[in-house]
Amino acid sequence: MEKKELIYEGKGKKLFAVENGDLLIAEFKDDLTAFNAQKRSQESGKGALNAAISAKLFGLLEKNGIATHLVKTLDSTNHLIKKTQIIPIEVVVRNVATGSLTKRLGIEEGTKLAFSLVEFYYKNDDLGDPILSDEHAILMKLASDNELKTLKELARKINSVLLPFFESIKLRLIDFKVEFGRDRNGAILLADEISPDSCRFWDATSGEKLDKDRFRQDLGDVKSAYEEVLKRILGALN
Ligand code: TMP
Ligand code: ASP
Q1: CA distance 154 to 174
Q2: Choosing a second label site near 150 at 20 to 30 A (CA), which of 8, 134, 159, 179?
Protein backbone atom coordinates (compact mmCIF):
# COMPACT_ATOMS: atom_id res chain seq x y z
CA MET A 1 0.00 0.00 0.00
CA GLU A 2 1.65 3.21 -1.16
CA LYS A 3 1.57 6.42 0.89
CA LYS A 4 0.53 9.49 -1.07
CA GLU A 5 0.41 13.02 0.33
CA LEU A 6 0.61 13.84 4.02
CA ILE A 7 -2.82 15.15 4.90
CA TYR A 8 -2.49 15.73 8.65
CA GLU A 9 0.21 15.64 11.30
CA GLY A 10 -0.79 15.46 14.94
CA LYS A 11 1.30 15.06 18.08
CA GLY A 12 1.35 11.27 17.91
CA LYS A 13 0.59 10.34 14.32
CA LYS A 14 0.82 11.35 10.68
CA LEU A 15 -2.03 10.61 8.27
CA PHE A 16 -1.35 9.90 4.61
CA ALA A 17 -3.73 9.63 1.68
CA VAL A 18 -3.75 6.37 -0.32
CA GLU A 19 -5.12 5.45 -3.74
CA ASN A 20 -8.49 4.46 -2.27
CA GLY A 21 -10.14 7.73 -1.21
CA ASP A 22 -12.09 6.05 1.62
CA LEU A 23 -8.90 4.95 3.39
CA LEU A 24 -5.80 6.53 4.97
CA ILE A 25 -2.53 5.33 6.43
CA ALA A 26 -1.85 6.33 10.05
CA GLU A 27 1.85 6.36 10.93
CA PHE A 28 2.61 6.25 14.66
CA LYS A 29 5.41 8.63 15.65
CA ASP A 30 8.12 8.30 18.28
CA ASP A 31 7.34 11.79 19.64
CA LEU A 32 6.18 12.09 23.22
CA THR A 33 4.34 15.21 24.29
CA ALA A 34 2.53 16.21 27.44
CA PHE A 35 0.75 19.22 28.92
CA ASN A 36 -0.47 20.38 25.52
CA ALA A 37 2.95 19.80 23.99
CA GLN A 38 4.72 22.15 26.41
CA LYS A 39 6.83 19.12 27.33
CA ARG A 40 8.30 17.23 24.38
CA SER A 41 10.64 14.33 23.82
CA GLN A 42 11.32 11.41 21.53
CA GLU A 43 11.53 7.74 22.41
CA SER A 44 12.81 5.52 19.64
CA GLY A 45 10.43 2.58 19.16
CA LYS A 46 7.52 4.21 21.02
CA GLY A 47 5.50 4.57 17.81
CA ALA A 48 5.82 0.86 17.05
CA LEU A 49 4.83 -0.07 20.61
CA ASN A 50 1.70 2.11 20.48
CA ALA A 51 0.84 0.84 16.99
CA ALA A 52 1.04 -2.77 18.19
CA ILE A 53 -0.87 -2.12 21.44
CA SER A 54 -3.60 -0.12 19.71
CA ALA A 55 -4.02 -2.74 16.94
CA LYS A 56 -4.51 -5.51 19.50
CA LEU A 57 -6.97 -3.49 21.57
CA PHE A 58 -8.96 -2.35 18.53
CA GLY A 59 -9.11 -6.00 17.43
CA LEU A 60 -10.41 -7.03 20.85
CA LEU A 61 -13.03 -4.27 20.73
CA GLU A 62 -14.12 -5.22 17.18
CA LYS A 63 -14.63 -8.78 18.41
CA ASN A 64 -16.86 -7.34 21.09
CA GLY A 65 -19.03 -5.39 18.68
CA ILE A 66 -17.36 -1.96 18.67
CA ALA A 67 -16.84 -0.61 15.14
CA THR A 68 -13.36 0.87 14.70
CA HIS A 69 -11.52 2.64 11.90
CA LEU A 70 -8.78 -0.02 11.76
CA VAL A 71 -8.66 -1.98 8.51
CA LYS A 72 -5.32 -3.70 9.04
CA THR A 73 -1.78 -3.35 10.31
CA LEU A 74 0.63 -2.70 7.43
CA ASP A 75 3.95 -2.85 9.27
CA SER A 76 5.36 -1.99 12.71
CA THR A 77 4.31 1.67 12.66
CA ASN A 78 1.62 1.95 9.95
CA HIS A 79 -2.08 1.15 10.11
CA LEU A 80 -4.49 1.19 7.20
CA ILE A 81 -7.60 2.96 8.47
CA LYS A 82 -11.00 4.07 7.27
CA LYS A 83 -11.16 7.79 6.62
CA THR A 84 -13.49 9.53 9.06
CA GLN A 85 -14.38 13.04 10.03
CA ILE A 86 -13.01 13.21 13.57
CA ILE A 87 -15.51 14.52 16.12
CA PRO A 88 -13.46 17.15 18.02
CA ILE A 89 -14.37 15.74 21.43
CA GLU A 90 -11.96 13.77 23.61
CA VAL A 91 -14.07 11.25 25.50
CA VAL A 92 -12.46 10.36 28.83
CA VAL A 93 -13.58 7.40 30.95
CA ARG A 94 -12.41 7.24 34.55
CA ASN A 95 -12.57 4.29 36.94
CA VAL A 96 -10.23 5.67 39.60
CA ALA A 97 -9.62 9.31 40.50
CA THR A 98 -6.29 10.81 39.47
CA GLY A 99 -4.95 13.47 37.10
CA SER A 100 -7.14 16.44 36.28
CA LEU A 101 -10.14 14.99 38.15
CA THR A 102 -8.37 15.14 41.51
CA LYS A 103 -6.96 18.58 40.70
CA ARG A 104 -10.29 20.05 39.58
CA LEU A 105 -12.63 18.57 42.18
CA GLY A 106 -10.37 17.63 45.07
CA ILE A 107 -11.43 13.96 45.00
CA GLU A 108 -8.68 12.04 46.73
CA GLU A 109 -6.04 10.49 44.45
CA GLY A 110 -6.65 6.76 43.97
CA THR A 111 -10.34 6.80 45.00
CA LYS A 112 -12.26 4.06 43.19
CA LEU A 113 -15.20 5.86 41.61
CA ALA A 114 -18.71 4.65 42.48
CA PHE A 115 -19.44 4.43 38.74
CA SER A 116 -17.34 4.89 35.63
CA LEU A 117 -17.33 8.58 34.86
CA VAL A 118 -17.54 9.71 31.24
CA GLU A 119 -16.36 13.25 30.47
CA PHE A 120 -16.08 15.29 27.29
CA TYR A 121 -13.19 17.62 26.49
CA TYR A 122 -13.00 19.97 23.53
CA LYS A 123 -10.15 18.80 21.27
CA ASN A 124 -8.55 22.19 20.74
CA ASP A 125 -4.86 22.69 21.54
CA ASP A 126 -5.10 26.50 21.42
CA LEU A 127 -7.64 26.37 24.24
CA GLY A 128 -5.81 23.58 26.13
CA ASP A 129 -8.55 20.94 25.59
CA PRO A 130 -11.10 22.40 28.07
CA ILE A 131 -13.78 20.24 29.70
CA LEU A 132 -17.16 20.43 27.92
CA SER A 133 -20.72 19.96 29.08
CA ASP A 134 -23.20 18.29 26.72
CA GLU A 135 -24.84 21.67 26.17
CA HIS A 136 -21.50 23.28 25.29
CA ALA A 137 -20.91 20.53 22.72
CA ILE A 138 -24.38 20.94 21.19
CA LEU A 139 -24.20 24.75 21.24
CA MET A 140 -20.89 24.62 19.39
CA LYS A 141 -22.29 22.04 16.94
CA LEU A 142 -19.43 19.65 17.71
CA ALA A 143 -21.94 16.78 17.75
CA SER A 144 -25.68 16.27 17.92
CA ASP A 145 -27.54 15.29 21.06
CA ASN A 146 -27.96 11.77 19.66
CA GLU A 147 -24.29 11.51 18.79
CA LEU A 148 -23.31 12.55 22.33
CA LYS A 149 -25.52 9.76 23.66
CA THR A 150 -23.82 7.33 21.28
CA LEU A 151 -20.36 8.55 22.34
CA LYS A 152 -21.20 7.95 25.99
CA GLU A 153 -22.67 4.50 25.29
CA LEU A 154 -19.68 3.48 23.20
CA ALA A 155 -17.24 4.81 25.80
CA ARG A 156 -18.95 2.78 28.54
CA LYS A 157 -19.03 -0.32 26.34
CA ILE A 158 -15.32 0.07 25.54
CA ASN A 159 -14.63 0.37 29.28
CA SER A 160 -16.69 -2.72 30.02
CA VAL A 161 -14.58 -4.73 27.55
CA LEU A 162 -11.22 -3.26 28.51
CA LEU A 163 -11.60 -3.31 32.32
CA PRO A 164 -11.85 -7.12 32.70
CA PHE A 165 -9.28 -7.65 29.94
CA PHE A 166 -6.69 -5.51 31.72
CA GLU A 167 -7.62 -7.05 35.04
CA SER A 168 -6.79 -10.46 33.51
CA ILE A 169 -3.27 -9.22 32.69
CA LYS A 170 -2.81 -7.68 36.14
CA LEU A 171 -3.16 -4.05 35.05
CA ARG A 172 -5.61 -1.61 36.59
CA LEU A 173 -7.23 0.53 33.90
CA ILE A 174 -7.42 3.81 35.82
CA ASP A 175 -8.70 6.02 33.01
CA PHE A 176 -8.41 6.52 29.26
CA LYS A 177 -9.25 8.85 26.41
CA VAL A 178 -10.89 7.82 23.14
CA GLU A 179 -11.81 9.68 19.98
CA PHE A 180 -14.48 8.89 17.43
CA GLY A 181 -15.06 9.75 13.78
CA ARG A 182 -17.99 9.75 11.38
CA ASP A 183 -17.68 7.68 8.24
CA ARG A 184 -19.19 8.66 4.91
CA ASN A 185 -22.60 7.42 6.05
CA GLY A 186 -22.48 9.16 9.41
CA ALA A 187 -21.78 5.93 11.31
CA ILE A 188 -19.60 6.50 14.36
CA LEU A 189 -16.32 4.57 14.48
CA LEU A 190 -13.73 4.36 17.23
CA ALA A 191 -10.73 6.23 15.80
CA ASP A 192 -7.30 7.51 16.88
CA GLU A 193 -5.59 5.02 19.22
CA ILE A 194 -5.76 3.30 22.58
CA SER A 195 -2.26 3.04 24.00
CA PRO A 196 -0.20 3.97 27.07
CA ASP A 197 -0.14 7.51 25.61
CA SER A 198 -3.91 7.75 26.05
CA CYS A 199 -4.58 5.51 29.08
CA ARG A 200 -3.42 5.18 32.64
CA PHE A 201 -2.38 1.67 33.70
CA TRP A 202 -1.23 0.83 37.22
CA ASP A 203 0.35 -2.56 37.90
CA ALA A 204 -2.21 -4.51 39.94
CA THR A 205 0.40 -5.82 42.37
CA SER A 206 2.99 -3.07 42.78
CA GLY A 207 0.87 -0.05 41.81
CA GLU A 208 3.66 1.01 39.46
CA LYS A 209 2.58 3.38 36.65
CA LEU A 210 2.99 1.83 33.21
CA ASP A 211 1.85 4.68 30.95
CA LYS A 212 2.63 8.22 29.80
CA ASP A 213 2.56 9.49 33.39
CA ARG A 214 6.12 8.09 33.53
CA PHE A 215 7.02 10.81 31.01
CA ARG A 216 4.70 13.50 32.43
CA GLN A 217 6.07 12.98 35.94
CA ASP A 218 9.71 12.26 34.97
CA LEU A 219 9.58 8.76 36.45
CA GLY A 220 11.97 7.32 33.81
CA ASP A 221 11.80 3.94 32.01
CA VAL A 222 9.02 5.13 29.69
CA LYS A 223 9.82 2.65 26.94
CA SER A 224 10.19 -0.36 29.20
CA ALA A 225 6.78 0.42 30.72
CA TYR A 226 5.17 0.45 27.26
CA GLU A 227 7.04 -2.78 26.41
CA GLU A 228 5.66 -4.41 29.54
CA VAL A 229 2.11 -3.40 28.59
CA LEU A 230 2.57 -4.87 25.08
CA LYS A 231 4.14 -8.06 26.46
CA ARG A 232 1.16 -8.67 28.75
CA ILE A 233 -1.35 -7.92 25.97
CA LEU A 234 0.40 -10.30 23.56
CA GLY A 235 0.51 -12.94 26.28
CA ALA A 236 -3.27 -12.79 26.55
CA LEU A 237 -4.31 -12.18 22.94
CA ASN A 238 -1.86 -14.20 20.85
P1 TMP B 1 -6.44 13.83 32.73
O2 TMP B 1 -6.57 13.26 34.10
O3 TMP B 1 -5.14 14.56 32.50
O4 TMP B 1 -7.64 14.65 32.34
O5 TMP B 1 -6.40 12.58 31.71
C6 TMP B 1 -7.43 11.63 31.65
C7 TMP B 1 -7.06 10.52 30.69
O8 TMP B 1 -7.01 10.99 29.35
C9 TMP B 1 -5.69 9.89 30.93
O10 TMP B 1 -5.80 8.50 30.68
C11 TMP B 1 -4.79 10.52 29.92
C12 TMP B 1 -5.72 10.80 28.78
N13 TMP B 1 -5.39 12.03 28.07
C14 TMP B 1 -5.08 11.98 26.72
O15 TMP B 1 -5.03 10.91 26.12
N16 TMP B 1 -4.82 13.16 26.07
C17 TMP B 1 -4.86 14.36 26.68
O18 TMP B 1 -4.64 15.38 26.03
C19 TMP B 1 -5.19 14.40 28.08
C20 TMP B 1 -5.22 15.71 28.82
C21 TMP B 1 -5.44 13.21 28.72
N1 ASP C 1 -1.83 14.74 24.86
C2 ASP C 1 -1.50 16.05 25.39
C3 ASP C 1 -0.17 16.50 24.82
O4 ASP C 1 0.48 15.74 24.21
C5 ASP C 1 -1.56 16.14 26.88
C6 ASP C 1 -1.16 14.97 27.72
O7 ASP C 1 -1.30 13.83 27.31
O8 ASP C 1 -0.70 15.20 28.86
O9 ASP C 1 0.25 17.60 24.98
Answers
A1: 18
A2: 8
